[in-house]
Amino acid sequence: MPLDHHLFLEEIKMAHRYPKPLLDTLYCLKDHIHWEEEQVEDDEYSSSTTTTITNTNTDTSSVVFLEHDLFWDREELSSLLAKEHQNQLSNTLQKNLVLASSRQEAVEWILKVNAHYSFSTLTAVLAVNYLDRFLFSFRFQNDSNNNPWLTQLAAVACLSLAAKVEETHVPLFVDLQVEESKYLFEAKAVNRMEILVLSALGWQMNPVTPLSFLDYITRKLGLKGYLCLEFLRRCETVLLSVFAGEGGRMLQADDGGCVWVPMRRENDPS
Amino acid sequence: MEKTGVLSAKEAFEKLEKVGEGTYGKVYRAREKATGKIVALKKTRLHEDEEGVPPTTLREVSILRMLSRDPHVVRLMDVKQGQNKEGKTVLYLVFEYMDTDLKKFIRSFRQSGETIPPHIIKVILSICPSIFNIRFFFVHLFLSIWLQSLMYQLCKGVAFCHGHGILHRDLKPHNLLMDRKTMMLKIADLGLARAFTVPIKKYTHEILTLWYRAPEVLLGATHYSMAVDMWSVGCIFAELVTKQALFPGDSELQQLLHIFRLLGTPNEDVWPGVSKLMNWHEYPQWNPQSLSTAVPSLDELGLDLLSQMLKYEPSKRISAKKAMEHVYFDDLDKRHL
């Protein structure tokens, strides 16, 4: 009972800081947890009845992590913090509502395409990171003739670049534009925009992101196997909901740290 | 596209000669006109009717931006955009120039005949110094002295990559650049390198030149990590000693059989989970042989380090950081490395 109470308070605090979609995500996760628990029970039942070593080995091997993967270093966290760059676009967007609106549409588009192709969360996080850095570097806010299509073209290029960095299979430029948008760009235009984005970002395409901190925290906590995967999956869901949330809040990399608090409590065996 | 006052690649550099083919394009030795400095230009053509910047180039540049401050990773100095004779867009990666690579270095020693173990050289030299050809003697003395240094530098460079969450995935002698004068070794060609986070995701299967490919990759594991690079380091270590590839397979199956003949066919006892890997089949059953049969001139400490690099079970394989601390390197002067 005290634990539930504390968790509830944490959720209230989170709700104050984040828009409603986050709370909805947490509620949805609870339903999902129930389904997951049922599935786990089924697995336990089937493995106990069949008693074959093969089944249990198969189950465990799919979530085994190498010891190296869980290794962490004392300097790692300070290294991540030192490499983190403040997101400088937030203030700019408050003054340029047109740009804020087209950025919001671009982010929504990125998330839809990401889901369509089942890209990883990191691909989405990278794409939004590139877009924000690009928009800031080109200071669209000073352009009274700001073109929304340019932001959308940048979004296509940024998602393509993120997929190339992170995914094993990257769709063609035209196939990438699967979700409805006001514009459809030909390959040549996306090609040129890719080069423009890369030059603007100094080819630094592996930035510190919230997921870098989740990576560190997971290893620090020593979570293993199913628990590790579940923990990461929930954190990733929360991060994506923040991206998609009302107002398109700018996400600092170390926001990855605060969202794991309720997850940690839920994972406590006590 | 070009900023005012910024020279294009053609204006900034004078190409001197083509020195090789990289993962995705030609490599030239060139001189920077402004400074007279010699650099390596790696050329990548962008096909404007195709799909933009190749993932290999994108990953290599981005990862080198993260890693170039380590002395054992080749330094990327700049990225230049230009146009070739047909007006097509070309990217030039500007690297520090290194005059050779480990593959050429090893080959230059292979031509000087059979290997004689350093400790035997010392014994014979103390008894009958006059019988040796001077060049032959110095060649082998030279290599035995530098073996530890080269291996230490390789482990240090790999440890740096892994410490920054980067898998190289294509370590082989050709990708390890060297300066003959200083005997510095640098890791290069990160076109197949990848940033990784926990949990390791499914990666492309077709990575790593076959001879240096770890058994878990050959057996179809798609979740793999830093250990695949350490297997490659072990193969390179043996090749530095014998000047022949340790496991020179010409197909994936032959590659596995080469490994199994020396290290024994793996089973669930030595490698839990091996029989569940995607490409696992029934294989001929070989017993493990002593590594000294394959690398006869390596001393006991070196053989111990090598054996830890060639553990079947990836989680048991030594890490690059731990390898640097191995007693094999205890008597190496590390002050300049």
TrEMBL record, chain A:
Transmembrane segments: none annotated. GO terms for cellular component: cyclin-dependent protein kinase holoenzyme complex; cytoplasm; nucleus. SUPFAM superfamilies: Cyclin-like. Residues 108-199 form the Cyclin-like domain. SMART domains: CYCLIN (SM00385). One of its GO terms (biological process) is G1/S transition of mitotic cell cycle. CDD domains: CYCLIN_AtCycD-like_rpt1. One of its GO terms (molecular function) is cyclin-dependent protein serine/threonine kinase regulator activity. Keywords: Cell cycle, Cell division, Cyclin. Interacts with the CDC2 protein kinase to form a serine/threonine kinase holoenzyme complex also known as maturation promoting factor (MPF). The cyclin subunit imparts substrate specificity to the complex. Belongs to the cyclin family. This is B-like cyclin.
From TrEMBL, chain B:
GO terms for molecular function: ATP binding; cyclin binding; cyclin-dependent protein serine/threonine kinase activity; RNA polymerase II CTD heptapeptide repeat kinase activity. The keyword Kinase applies. ATP binds at residue 42. PANTHER family: CELL DIVISION PROTEIN KINASE, CYCLIN-DEPENDENT KINASE B2-2. One of its GO terms (biological process) is G1/S transition of mitotic cell cycle. SUPFAM superfamilies: Protein kinase-like (PK-like) (SSF56112). It comes from Glycine max (Soybean). This is Protein kinase domain-containing protein.
